[in-house]
Amino acid sequence: MSIIEAIIIGIIQGATEFLPISSSGHLVLLPEIFQMTNPDLPLIGLVHTGTLLAVLIYFRKDLWEIIKAVIRDLSQHQPLASNESKLGWLIVAGSLPVALIGLPFSGFFEEVFSNPRIAAAFLLITALLLVLGERALSGKKDIAQMTWADSLVIGAFQALALFPGISRSGSTIVGGLSRGLDRSTAARFSFLLGIPAIFGAGMESILQLFTATPQFSVSVYVFAFVAAAVSGYACIHWLLTWVKNHTLYGFAVYVTLLSIGYLLYSFLAG
């Protein structure tokens, strides 16, 4: 893999992890379409870690307030006394579905991940979710008004993204919209909820560094990591600004065209 390919892989991961267009689907399809070198598991782990770094830096003030509030309220035997500590526990609750489903069936999802046609087909599900989410948009709830049921439902939507082609950010934003959150709040909670999931995915792949021989040079991994972190940070900021005044329909159109285009290409090419 060349440095240019590594940067492209990093940008793909950084952008598509947070935009509602599926990072897993793009990491499967784009190297196939453009005849790029397929990333190995350690590289996938590193670019996931790059996007984790991006979201940690972007929400560093929020996360620090959440951590302080959780520790303070626990020490006072009032774990839900503040909105910040409540948000911390909502993130924990929302992470349960993906942990309970993803860990026992990780081998199954890895097998599905390797099939580009399946990833392309699941992009259509992402498009459908985005359209349904926009049509369901009617709520004005903010994070302070969220309930445990809201968090668990959004977490269940996040579990759908274990399948390649279903966007994690897209599914969780739609889950939030279905529970009456406004679009900006749904996007913000989606990013915060993604931190444990992205951490888990990245760490699982990075462990491959200790059990398998990396295929590429150190510079390839470094450039991919940096590209993922920079593009991820930029896309978080852009999307949070975008969703204040725009719908998700454009993303639905994009993933539909990508899905249909790849499926036609793959079947015609044999």
Describe this entry's structure for a reader.
This protein has 13 helices and no strands. It has one domain (3-19, 36-112, 136-162, 173-248). Helix 2 packs across helix 7 (116-136) and helix 8 (148-160) packs antiparallel against helix 9 (168-178). The two termini are 26 Å apart. The radius of gyration is 18 Å and the shape is globular. The protein is mostly helical and 270 residues long.
Element layout with pairings:
Blueprint: H1 3-18, H2 23-33, H3 41-58, H4 60-75, H5 83-102, H6 106-113, H7 116-136, H8 148-160, H9 168-178, H10 183-206, H11 208-211, H12 218-242, H13 249-269
Helix pairs in contact: 1-2, 1-3, 1-12, 2-7, 3-10, 3-12, 4-5, 5-8, 5-10, 7-9, 7-13, 8-9, 9-10, 10-12
- Based on DSSP secondary structure assignment, what is the total number of beta strands? 0
Q: How many DSSP helices?
A: 13
Biggest beta-sheet profile: none
What structural category do the secondary elements indicate? Answer: mainly alpha
Distance between the termini: 26 Å
Overall tally of structural domains: 1
Order of helices and strands: HHHHHHHHHHHHH
What proportion of the residues form beta strands (DSSP E)? under 5%
* Broad shape: globular
User: Mean pLDDT score, rounded?
Assistant: 85
**Helical fraction:** over 70%
Radius of gyration: 18 Å
